[in-house]
Amino acid sequence: MTPAAPVDWDALREAARDAMSRAYAPYSGYPVGVAALVDDGRMITGCNVENASYGIGLCAECGLVSQLAATGGGRLTHFTCVDGAGAVLVPCGRCRQLLYEFGGPELVLETPDGLRTLDEMLPQAFGPQNLG
C-alpha cells in the first residue's frame, strides 16, 4: 500500500481564497471560500452565494458538496475555509453537520488553532449510522 501524499495546506488555502474571490455577498459583505480534497485526489471548492431573501442564501460548504456530487462523488478527506481577508476560520455548526455527511468523523479541518478532525469539532455527531 502506498502511503498518502502529504497535504499541501498552502495550495488548499489558496484555492479557498480563489473561490472566496468569486463569492456573491452583497448583503452581508462577508465572502467565504472553501476548498477540500476528495479521496480520489480531486480538489473541489465552493463560495457563498447570498440572496435578497437572506434566509435562502447558500453557504460556501453547500457549494462545495454540490460540486462534490456533480463531479463524481467520493469522500472529503481534508478541508479549509477562509473569510474575506483570506484568514482561516471554522465552519458553523450547520456546515459541520453537512461536512460530516460527506467526510465523516475522520475529515481533517484546518482551523486557526491547527488541524482538527471533524470528530473533534462535532463530537457525537448525528449521521447516516443513526438511521435505520
From TrEMBL:
Domain CMP/dCMP-type deaminase: 7-129
Residues annotated for substrate binding in this entry: N48, V49, E50, N51, A52, S53, Y54
Reactions that this protein is recorded to catalyse: 2'-deoxycytidine + H2O + H(+) = 2'-deoxyuridine + NH4(+); cytidine + H2O + H(+) = uridine + NH4(+)
Zinc among keywords: yes
One Pfam family recorded for the sequence: dCMP_cyt_deam_1
Catalytic EC class: hydrolase
Annotated GO CC locations: cytosol
Domain of life: Bacteria
List of residues binding Zn(2+): C59, C92, C95
An MF annotation (GO) of this entry: cytidine deaminase activity
Role description: This enzyme scavenges exogenous and endogenous cytidine and 2'-deoxycytidine for UMP synthesis.
Full protein name: Cytidine deaminase
Organism field: Streptomyces pratensis (strain ATCC 33331 / IAF-45CD)
